[in-house]
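note to self: dont lose this again. the chain is below, predicted strucutre after it. 388 aa total, dont forget to put it in the shared folder this time
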Amino acid sequence: MSKSDWLEKDYYKVLGVDKDADADVIKKAYRKLARENHPDSKPGDAKAEDRFKAVSEAYSVLSDPAKRKEYDDTRSMFGAGAGGFRMPRGGGGTTFDLGDLFGNRGTSGAGAGGIGDLLGDIFSGGNTRRTNPQPRRGADVESQATISFREAVDGITLPLRMTSEAACRDCSGTGARSGTVPTVCVYCQGTGMQATSDGGPFAMTEPCPHCRGRGLVVADPCPTCNGSGRGVSTRTMQVRIPAGVKDGQRIRLRGKGAPGERGGPGGDLYVVVHVTPHPVFGRAGDNITLTVPITFDEAALGASVKVPTLSGGAVTLKVPAGTPNGRTFRVRGRGATRKDGTKGDLLVTVAVVVPEQLSAEARAAVETLRSQGGGVDPRAGLFTKASG
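---
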């Protein structure tokens, strides 16, 4: 009796009982059907003999609590119904031969196996194992890079000195002393994984504790790496920091981390970028920010003011008459480089500078301005609005 039989045959239907029938009901139904179809009571009746065998098979499973639970779990997991799997098609159904799906576990060739192999591995705890040690991916490596504000805006390629794990030079990564070779772990058959079961139909896999997931056991360890097969590798590589990178951004470089084992792929390199602040410019997304001081008369009467750009040149900003303190002007195309190659803008905020000391002539001019203010109170209605 195979696990595929459990999906093909409805033992509850064979005995004529419900799925929630207790042990006494199952036993009573079996005895009744066994008496009716026993070969001694119906000699020469081939159909009765077949029914007797089916009833006995069903009772052998349903009378055993452990087998019954395993049988119920199997059919529940794969959605089996009487006669096999049924899949809707055009409002009807098509019944598939489970024998074709499950295949023959004992047959060699590319067509052998099938879902039966899958079930066999699940219920046997995964005893079918490959004996060749599997490739292992290298570890991920994280590094730090500090660049200037301008380098962050424009992008830069810089040398990065990396220290990471690599194959031990003395043992070429085997972990065994020169002249010896490691052996395949007999506990996990070289897979590096071991199956454990809690008594249910499923088996969980975890790294083999005997070989620590390597799939290999070293009897005479390499004195340099103590049998780990890993050493320290120091290398310098050129890393491209893209334009527009932000402070604290983490850049991933695929395959640039620690080398893999047994032909496995390398890990990834993560570079955390730190950007030193600029004394004048700032960042707001893809835009560069700048605060420019202007005098009171420039704000009141208007002026053309030259402002610096990050590239080193200058642009002329036209400040209209009556410009308030804190107003921001946009200079297009003078910001940080975006991912699509276009540039953000330069945002210039003006700050009106009030002199700390005035000469006698300047004070007289300001007092004249105050007297000529036209009686306009800039705080008119302020307290009314404050009181709601």
